[in-house]
């Protein structure tokens, strides 16, 4: 099969374009269905995510809420943002700097009962690091959170 | 004095880099004298930058606390090795390392590259000067590593304990060498665009640099993944984290680039595309640096982030890439048409490789930047494995198939039937593994397919050696075989790990045990231990089978005091068929201790495979170097003979 150079160039360009457009379309589809959205407890209350949908939940760990579940390994605690509260159940080893009263981002999903089941906890990872999602919140809402927990 | 000397050297190097740029421009307009000066200036600049970096390392070695950077990131009680690595484990130092390597590579290009025409060489070194100049400006204006404190600090702040690790001491420099190698490829591409000389010599010159960059990137990514695996204590080896993606994207682009340069070098086809890829590869290195340094995305690896500096890098990125693309738009039409080729040929399979790799690159890039896009519209999202794994696999799996077939095809034209016959053993292996996977039933769709393809590729990658005497095969062929085989090994490790992993999360009282993958793990107790700059609680886990103790695992929770921080030290026990991975958790109720265990079948294959891939690159590189040397000796002899005659 012999092609004229111009035709081959066009065909190559066509193949590359189709593949790239395909990749972009696939990516957009994948992103729409698979990206996990970030919620704070107030949003969960006003506009609850679907049960089983992967989301990230960010907020402060409520003072005095940390406890152990009956299975002996899961951890229970409450995340709040000064406006609303969400009960969280986490099965795993707590991050090194996870303490009551500090910020946390939990990755997981809601059960039909309204408990958030977390697979991963992102806590501060050195003394200067704050998960990016919490930066704005710690400025505006942490004050309210602290005020509420200390009153 | 040392700091001032370093700063002076840095300013001089920046000045020389500016001079190099103007000399290149003026020489292009006929000032031949200036053209002569470009090479020596580039060499001098490289030496000065190396000197400046040596001064910084010296400051860290002495823990000179009158220097702001040392005071912020070092500590007199730190192990000596980490004092040294502290020099580049922070923003300013790592940027100095970057610019030093870049200037030094410029010097190497100026000293040793003789294949390009004088004009292209000048334009190349001019382009290299623009890039280095941008980084000098970045260092001197916004991140001077040699800044003094008004009053010396009494004690340093220390280095983040997560970074006090042998793997991580060498991981960032390795990646930087890779990024810088791509910057050299970029300069070659710009130089070739300026003169329009995009041909085989261009490809041959650039190929070694891209290959070297690619070897470093491979090693850097493998080291980073290994570090995340054992240091973070999460048991994962790849999180599709923005910072990980930032190193993967240049790697994908570089992989595509050296495959397309081999088409350009052998068949003089894909000219415009290769130039474009070189620009893309360096853009990805810059995007990577931007993502890592700016902290615009949440990352588990983000250290030393600073949004302001991110902006500076973004501006540099805009100038370099915008400039290169504008030049590309202006000049691409003037690059003479390359050769045509048949659809049934080695070069066509390499086109398939390039298209698929570019598509993969696009998918990773979109997934990485998507959170930034939605954030600008007020929604915060994160993108993780549920997106990257399946969407990436759609392009990665066909790529593996192409890797099986491509190396068996000839340049120019091939008949299909013999190729299919040669691949028969690989197909048989795939069918056999597929049968096993289905019978076993534990593997998911992705990990199962991964295992099948790994088996096929492992066999198929060896076929190019099958019909010749292996010891007579050229090193470059060996390089390809080893690298492709290495990828099969990595794929096998990754698929086996995700298909057959076992996990236990338990609360144990001392003396109590749990069972994982046939091993009984007993918690004997916890003891306090201390290191040079940390204290820790250490768990003592006895691993036994049928009552006979096989090993003791000692995972720790460490507390460092400067800076104050706790880290989880996982304990690993490597067997031939996998790894036992133990993490000590927090205390649970009534004197119990939480322990998390994983049995990870064949997980080490992931990094052994990566090492093979890098070794393949190294073999190919030395093969090229050897033939270049032979050629230059032959040319030398020929001229001698002519002179004698």
TrEMBL record, chain A:
Heme binds at residues 125, 129. Residues 1-9 are cytoplasmic. Its main location: membrane. The keyword Membrane applies. It is found in: Cell membrane; Membrane. Residues 31-151 are extracellular. It holds the Pfam family CcmE. InterPro entries: CcmE, CcmE-like_sf, NA-bd_OB-fold. Coiled coil: none annotated. It comes from the Bacteria. It is a single-pass type II membrane protein. Keywords: Cell membrane, Cytochrome c-type biogenesis, Heme, Iron, Membrane, Metal-binding, Signal-anchor, Transmembrane, Transmembrane helix. Heme chaperone required for the biogenesis of c-type cytochromes. Transiently binds heme delivered by CcmC and transfers the heme to apo-cytochromes in a process facilitated by CcmF and CcmH. Belongs to the CcmE/CycJ family. This is Cytochrome c-type biogenesis protein CcmE. It comes from Blastomonas marina.
UniProtKB/TrEMBL annotation, chain B:
Its main location: membrane. Coiled coil: none annotated. It comes from the Bacteria. It is found in: Cell inner membrane. It is a multi-pass membrane protein. Keywords: Cell inner membrane, Cell membrane, Cytochrome c-type biogenesis, Membrane, Transmembrane, Transmembrane helix. Residues 314-624 form the Cytochrome c-type biogenesis protein CcmF C-terminal domain. Residues 88-294 form the Cytochrome c assembly protein domain. The chain crosses the membrane at residues 6-28, 40-61, 95-112, 124-142, 176-196, 208-228, 248-265, 272-292, 312-330, 351-373, 393-411, 423-439, 445-463, 475-496, 602-621. Pfam families: CcmF_C, Cytochrom_C_asm. NCBIfam families: nrfE, PRK10369.1. Required for the biogenesis of c-type cytochromes. Possible subunit of a heme lyase. Belongs to the CcmF/CycK/Ccl1/NrfE/CcsA family. PANTHER family: CYTOCHROME C ASSEMBLY PROTEIN-RELATED (PTHR43653), CYTOCHROME C-TYPE BIOGENESIS PROTEIN CCMF (PTHR43653:SF1). This is Cytochrome c biogenesis protein CcmF. The lineage of its organism: Bacteria, Pseudomonadati, Pseudomonadota, Alphaproteobacteria, Sphingomonadales.
